[in-house]
Amino acid sequence: MGFRRAGSCPPALASPSIVVPAPEPFGDFHSNHFYEPAPSPSSAFPSTPSFPPTPSFPPTPIPLSAFPVTPSSAFAPPPPPAFIPTPSSVASPVAGSPQENAQQARRGKKGPPRKEFVERYADRPYQPPPAIKRIQRHFTRQKKIEVLDYLIYHQVPVASGGEQARRSRMYIPEPTKVNGQEAQFPKPGFRHPTYDEAEKQFKIPRSTIATWWKDKDKILHSK
Length: 223
What we know:
223 residues; two-stranded antiparallel ribbon; two-stranded antiparallel sheet
């Protein structure tokens, strides 16, 4: 047997029915750096689904005829309200295109209406038409009547009294009836104009004037 020191007690034997808990670590449970959580049993094995996966199929296209057709008028915007002109909108001029502005500038301002021929020359004595300086190719009925009146009613003074030359030589048209009346014979010392004189006066070929004289009744009575 060995010797014991003085003052020492023999070790106490624990009862087999008493469980001594382990001492808790210092500080918080999560702040202890010696603590390592044990892995969960579910994380050690891969998760498997409890039922088989559903197979996926591509979407089936739907034809356009299956959708209801809506008329385009249902989506049309409402018509604008009727425009009511105001005094300011009526009086304000609207700027036109450059061509219209140029035409208005060329026309100028509209003046008073022109007077009729009778009103303009009623207070003036009759003046014979001026001599034509160029030959014309197309003539109106008014021009033909003017030439025929010149041959019928105009009188030319005779140079040396009496008609010395024959009518055929001077190309003087024979007297004729105009509008049912006998043509006026020239006064003494005067004669009717010739085709040559009418040609110089109106610048119309003599042959054309002679043709008009032959058709004078048709020309004078036509409308």
